[in-house]
C-alpha cells in the first residue's frame, strides 16, 4: 500500500469516525471468510458496516474525532463495526459475538462517550431508532383513538338502548 492509498484510507476512516453514531471494536482472530461475510451481511441489513483497517492508520484517523477513546482498543486483529444509528452496530456486534466465540468485543464509543464491554452490551439492548419512533407514534395515536372511542360510545349506547326499547314495545 503506497502513501496515497494510506492517506485515502485515513480520510475514509476519519469520515466514518466523524459520522458514526456508534463504533464497536472487536478482535476477530480465527473467523473464517464465510463468518466475516455473515457479520458484514448482518451489519448491512441493520444499516451499518464492518471495516478491517490497520490499527496504526485507524489511530491516525481517530485524532481529533469524537470517538478517539477507542484508540486504546486498537491492537491485534481488530474489526470495526459502525452505524449512524446509535444502536444498530452494537446490536449486530453483540448478536454475532453471542453466536460466535471468535469475535471478542473490546469496547467502543458512542459519540464522545467511551464504552467498555458492558457498555456495548447495554447499548445493544436499547431499542433502535425505528422502534423508538414507532412507540412514540403509538403513544401519540393512542389518545386520539381513545377520544374517538369515547365520542362514538354514547351514540352506540343510545342506539342499543333504543333498539332494546323498540324490541320490548313490539
Q: Radius of gyration over alpha carbons?
A: 26 Å
Please, what is the CATH homologous superfamily of the largest domain? Ribosomal protein L10, N-terminal RNA-binding domain
Can you count the helices?
6
Strand content: 15-25%
N to C succession of SSEs: HEHEHEHEEHH
Whole-number tally of structural domains: 2
Number of strands: 5
How do the strands of the widest beta sheet line up side by side? 2-3-1-4-5
Q: List unreliable stretches of 5+ residues.
A: none
Q: Please bin the fraction of helical residues.
A: 55-70%
Mean pLDDT: 84
Write up this protein.
The chain folds into 2 domains: 3-126, Alpha-Beta Plaits, CATH 3.30.70; 127-170. Helix 1 (3-19) crosses helix 3 and helix 4 crosses helix 5 (117-124). The protein is 58% helix and 15% strand. It is α+β, with helices and mostly antiparallel strands. It is built from 6 helices and 5 strands. The N and C termini lie far apart (95 Å). One of its GO terms (molecular function) is structural constituent of ribosome.
Q: Any descriptors?
A:
170 residues; 58% helix; alpha+beta; 2 domains; single chain; Alpha-Beta Plaits; elongated
